[in-house]
Amino acid sequence: MQIEAEIEHVPTVVMGVHTCDMHAIQLLDRVHATGYADQHYLARRQNTVLVSVECLRPCMPHSFCKSMGTLSITEGYDIHLTDLGTDYAVDIDSEKGEAIIAGLSALWDPTDEDYERLNRVMAEKWPRFAYRLDFDVTELPNLMGMSYNSSYWEELGARCLACGMCTKVCPTCYCFNVSDEVDLSLQNGKRLRIWDSCQVDQFAVVAGGHNFRASRAARQRHRFFRKGKYQTEAYGLVGCVGCGRCAAACLVNITPVDTFNELYRRRTERNHAEAKS
Ligand code: SF4
Ligand code: SF4
């Protein structure tokens, strides 16, 4: 019997990638190229052109990209567009991007006035976004480490429905299950990767029926530790890019901003109490 990986090489252009999602893709690039490199991801990525757009306004009330440092992007795209009103500023960061714009008659080399327009648009953009975390993002991994035994995880676990929506919409979540489908002849079959979620009850069930992360509280903690600590420490990039999608998707209003700020509030209170005693 012979088993071969089916590597897809479908040329793809992704248009209008938000700046926060560009940060998420940069994280995924590192994750999937490190250790056991993911040949499927890398093949697809090599055949993908990313055309990103500079976000000039928050896309929803739950966004907190400014707090996570993902409000803007300076590299990693093939083509980056900034809306100047009547024109777009076009920035290129790859040979693929250069090849696409080569010969386009609608482009011109920027003048001093064009740079001034771009600077003005960027200067007007920043005040439209609010800092929503009560502390600097560089403190987040340390805060998470000190919050491992917080009672807050039990409170989140009591609310969580284990529906998995927060991970399904997350641009930095990439966990999948593997399932084998064999046809009736037992001669042919497929090995499939299927999106999975660390928040559903069965996620951590292993041989013998043992569930090594059975409680919803433990799974919420795991999720937020990945977003706030593990990914940053392993790959040097934020594990949550502040897009706010999980907050919009959660039926019981469990959100990263509320979670991180509440952990910060409890740690600050604890520090004050210890200082007094
Ligand atoms: S955890 Fe939520 S806010 Fe952060 S990147 Fe994922 S979906 Fe976006
Ligand atoms: S979307 Fe909300 S309720 Fe559903 S698993 Fe995530 S945190 Fe729990």
Highlighted features:
41% helix; alpha/beta; single chain; 2 domains; 277 residues; binds iron/sulfur cluster; 11 helices
Ordered list of secondary-structure elements with their pairings:
Blueprint: E1 12-17, H1 19-33, H2 39-46, E2 48-53, H3 65-68, E3 79-83, E4 88-92, H4 95-101, H5 112-125, H6 140-146, H7 152-159, H8 165-168, E5 176-182, E6 189-195, H9 216-235, H10 245-249, H11 256-276
Parallel strand pairs: 1-2, 2-3
Antiparallel strand pairs: 3-4, 5-6
Helix pairs in contact: 6-9, 6-11, 7-9
Bound molecules: iron/sulfur cluster (2 copies).
One iron/sulfur cluster (SF4) is lined by residues 160-166, 199, 249-252, 254.
Provide a descriptive summary of the structure in words.
The protein is α/β, with parallel strands linked by helices. The chain has two domains: 12-56 and 72-128, no CATH class; 137-170 and 198-276, no CATH class. 41% of the residues lie in helices and 13% in strands. It has eleven helices and six strands. It has helices at 19-33, 39-46, 65-68, 95-101, 112-125, 140-146, 152-159, 165-168, 216-235, 245-249, 256-276, and strands at 12-17, 48-53, 79-83, 88-92, 176-182, 189-195. Helix 3 links the parallel strand 2 and strand 3. The N and C termini lie far apart (70 Å). The structure holds iron/sulfur cluster (SF4) (2 copies). The site of one iron/sulfur cluster has 13 residues, from helix 10.
